[in-house]
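Hi, here's the filled form for the chain we discussed.

Project: internal
Contact: R.S.
Residues: 120
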Amino acid sequence: EVQLQASGGGLAQAGGSLRLSCAASGFVVNDYPVSWLRQAPGKEFEWLGRIQSVVGSEKGRSTYADSAKGRFAISRDNAKNTVDLEMTSLKPEDTAVYYCQVRVRGNSYRGKGTLVTVSS
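And the returned structure, exactly as it came back:
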């Protein structure tokens, strides 16, 4: 059974950094693209970025939304089977619940999110 669990959220100051982790089970993170999304209070889900699988033509490349470019970085830890989101230069508008998401064998999975609060 595919499961995802995001962790690492908390309170940060503007300009600070946080590292979130998405623990995966039921699939190997190396083999599937994994995305990070967020949902700010009262707003729609926002896609932040994706790390591609190493088996496809993209060869593990990461792509980002404009809001994340230059500040956020997605990486994989194959030993732990996790996909991490390193966030730097945090802004109050980054306050949201952060989720990881994957599509495996035709089904989309989004785990429980982790709350990030950025104070000014």
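Let me know if anything looks off before we file it.
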